[in-house]
Amino acid sequence: MVQFHEHIISDLLEEDSTTKGGGGGLVIISSGLSLHKLISSLLLLHSPSQGTLLILSSTPSQRSSISQSLLHLQQNPNPSPNLPLEITSDLTAQHRHSLYSSSSIFFITSRILIVDLLNSKVPTSNIAGLIILNAHNLSETCTEAFIVRIFRTLNRTAYIRAFSDKPNAMVSGFSKAERIMKCLFIRRLHLWPRFQVYVSQDLERDPPTVVDIRVSLSPLMKGIQKAVIEAMDACLKELRKTNKVDVEDLTVENGLFKSFDEIVKRQLDPIWHTLGKKTKQLVSDLKTLRKLLDYLVRYDAVTYLKYLDTLRVSEGVRSIWIFADSSHKIFEFAKKRVYQLVQSNGEKLSVRTKNVATKKRKVKEDNNNDKEVNGSSACTNTNSGVVLEEVLEEAPKWKVLREVLEEIAEERQMQALQPEGEHMVEDAEDDNGIVLVACKDERSCMQLEDCIMKGPRQVMREEWEKYLRDKTGLHGLQTRNKKKSKNPKGFGILDGVVPAMPREDVETSSISKLEHDALLAAASEIRTLGKEETVEDNPQPHAGSKGRGKGKGKGKGKECQGNIRVSKTKELGTKTRRNEKSKISGSKNESRRIESDPVDAGDFHEDIKNSESVDKGVSRIHDEEVNATEFTHVKPLPPVHFFALESDQHILDILKPTIIIVYHPDMSFVREVEIYKAENPLKKLRVYFLFYEDSTEVQKFEASIRKENGAFESLIRQKSLMMIPVDQDGHCLGLTTSSEAQALSSQNSVTRKAGGRKEGEKVMQVIVDMREFMSSLPNVLHQKGMRIIPVTLDVGDYVLSPLICVERKSISDLFQSFASGRLYHQVETMVRYYRIPVLLIEFSQDKSFSFQSASDIGDDVTPYSIISKLSLLVMHFPRLRLVWSRSLHATAEIFSSLKANQDEPDLEKAMRVGVPTEEGIVEDDVRAETYNTSAVEFLRRLPGVTDSNYRTLMDGCKSLAELALLPIDRLTELMGGQKTARALREFLDAKFPTML
């Protein structure tokens, strides 16, 4: 444990000892400062004599991290208690009650705990305290605030400690930290930023050796980045013109973060229904452009182009950024990173004349009966044919990562050759040989692992082949939908040839058509080569590669060899680079810049002219012949373990690496590395940072640090100004307490009636379904002074009285229920068992109080309109009542007004509604009181009986036996038609088949 963790724990324990009855506090620390270790240290100090400790709002990754930290602490001389168990809904109520009394530590969900508290299943006197994680997600109406409010009324001596490591989220609203403290009944706020004195001293006492490597973007990547930023700036300028968003937040720097979407959406949600389609699309486009910037430095060139192709299809019509001036550069540069079109003689493709398209069409007419083996035969038989030249630009970081790993292996070999001394023996014991490479996501880890095992060129080839297979798969679907005859008669369009239309942009369209044909031809060539490769054996390494190393990697359970395999069918050419490698020294905070060596089109043309044989196919693979001498100089690599930052796991204490390569810089992971080094001051740790220079990657990393520092500065100012109300005993008062309501009622009492004596007020009761505790409405109803009774209901969500049953639907749930048909069944059961069924449609307080704008509502009934669906639902169930609520608090007011002149609901009857007894009888069935429900269902299934005539049949006869004896004339009169009456009569008179 780091020393500043001890300071945090001592502050919390001191607060508990000085506070008169009950203690705790809200602790906000910087991201990455090992919150799980702080929690596990607190759990270690807990003794069973204090009582049971409950941990709320924990995620699965946090639970596993805390358990692993406790296991690590068990290795110390002081044995730790048993690991915390998890209380789930699978346990019975009696079993949970025994666990609450066991004086142990438990993880528990908020929904289970609030239900047990309301049912008095929790012995609150045996609870030592509550630990609430992820405090930045709390609000006044959350379930955790509901739990603390009930818990404080029953136990005023237990402590409540809340923790958060997301300071940016704590300043998202107005005085959010103060409001969270009031709803949790907490008086003290503990702030521990990275720049705090104790934290900075501990982390900077013995820092790791840092090597900062700046890799320059390729020219095409720079062009894409510049174009995306220009498109983002144009969208932001258009959004500023609406005058409905705070202009200070609309900057390109804020647009790099995911929180930017939440900022803009939070401001526009209340007026979302008044916005035009253009403004709504601008908000969506900003999210797409942010992803484009992020994926540019994370994914390879082929994957990036594939993502752009999907955007062109999915957002091409309605998107605004695609029509910006700089958007065409994004697609153009992305293609140039993967391939380019040239003529068969190696010259660049020109678009000045129209003869390219016409020649292609003529050849198609002449060779109509020929099979298209290579996609477009015209491209191979004419001098002006188009050839697809592969560029397959590798990510600049791939080469740098390989160089760093090679230099690490060389350095270790040099250390191994040195005479063994005392200092070297210590280093050997400390170094386990693992090199940890931290990437953003799992896909990047797998791709980098393939780069080390197979080589970058082979990885790009595989991605390129996947891209072409997807192209040919899509083309196959299109051609299957448009089947042509084998020998079409006629000419022009009838002959399958599309003539060139006299348009101004015919050159551009012809180029795109040629490009499409060339891609399909390359895909068919790849597919043919793939079939040939399946016949051969697996490729073996080159015979001349005797001097390569055998560095074993542990990432994904595979061994990352330091060699490159050569395929038999098509050999991989590794282009000779200029030897500009410089050794990375071990000095602290050293910075080095590596210029990438981008491959431009000119190099490709030179290599094509110098090569002995030029491919006659449509797809030209730009690879040089493999030198056996090149593979003899392949350097060995050290063991490498790849780690995905998105997995949210803490792996440093498990692997204990001595060299860490941060491939995708992340602020939280950097802090974890600092904590790891502070906990192991004797370990020699070296950290390599790979940055793309002059990129949004650097800007985003630096801006994340500035945003967090600004958030802590804002919290420090709030702490100096906040006012936490306390009662006479020194206890913190929440936002709403029962004592306030009692004081208010006593002040308003009239002295003329019984001398001001307080009347015995009846407590309103609401029976709530268990599933509804996922929402915040039960909490708000409890704040209004209502008694909440949680049970499992088969019909409805809330029972307000013996007559009133409410089915609550949020907006998203309403749409889903209509789509699945669940709402029809729910309303049908409510109408069947309750006199006054109510459908409550609840909107969010911070969003518009409407489904759609008035201009979007049509006059006709359509199956896709939510208004039409609601109208049909009300017409089908005339007794159904619709209640519209603007917010949670408005719903509470509506419930109190509905219960004003009603009796309180009966718990036992509400639980039995809709549940058949052992005899199969359902109690309180409204339809069963008037009709025999089983007989009615049987009647409605008879031939000729419809929804319009079955009620008339029930009024005309008393039973099914009487119906079977009615003549055809009487049936015609009751059913309103001779055809339906005859169908029913024939069905009733039909004879049973006899068996001989």
Task: Walk me through the structure.
The chain has 39 helices and 22 strands. Among the domains are: about 5-205, P-loop containing nucleotide triphosphate hydrolases (Rossmann fold, 3-Layer(aba) Sandwich); about 220-345; about 395-415 and about 430-475 and about 635-695, Rossmann fold (3-Layer(aba) Sandwich), CATH 3.40.50; about 765-850 and about 865-910, Rossmann fold (3-Layer(aba) Sandwich); about 935-990, 5' to 3' exonuclease, C-terminal subdomain (DNA polymerase, domain 1), CATH 1.10.150. The radius of gyration is 37 Å and the shape is globular. Mean pLDDT is about 75; it is low at about 350-385, about 420-430, about 485-510, about 535-635 and about 735-750. With about 1000 residues, the protein is an alpha/beta fold. Helix content is about 45%, strand content about 10%. The strands form four sheets. The chain has a seven-stranded parallel sheet, with helices on both faces. β17, α28 (about 775-785) and β18 form a beta-alpha-beta unit.
Properties at a glance:
about 1000 residues; 22 strands; Rossmann fold; alpha/beta; seven-stranded parallel sheet
Strand share of the residues?
5-15%
The mean pLDDT is 75
Strand order, sheet with most strands = 3-4-2-5-6-1-7
Termini Cα gap: 90 Å
What is the approximate shape? globular
CATH hierarchy, class of the domain at 3-205: Alpha Beta
- Nearest-angstrom radius of gyration? 37 Å
* CATH architecture field of the domain at 3-205: 3-Layer(aba) Sandwich
Give the number of helices. 39
Low-confidence stretches: 351-384, 422-429, 483-510, 534-633, 737-749
CATH-assigned fold name of the domain at 3-205: Rossmann fold
Helical percentage = 40-55%
Annotation, overall tally of beta strands: 22
Structural class: alpha/beta
GO molecular function: damaged DNA binding; single-stranded DNA binding; single-stranded DNA endodeoxyribonuclease activity
Keywords: DNA damage, DNA repair, DNA-binding, Endonuclease, Hydrolase, Nuclease, Nucleus
InterPro entries: ERCC4_domain, Restrct_endonuc-II-like, RuvA_2-like, XPF_nuclease
Biased composition (Basic and acidic residues): 568-611
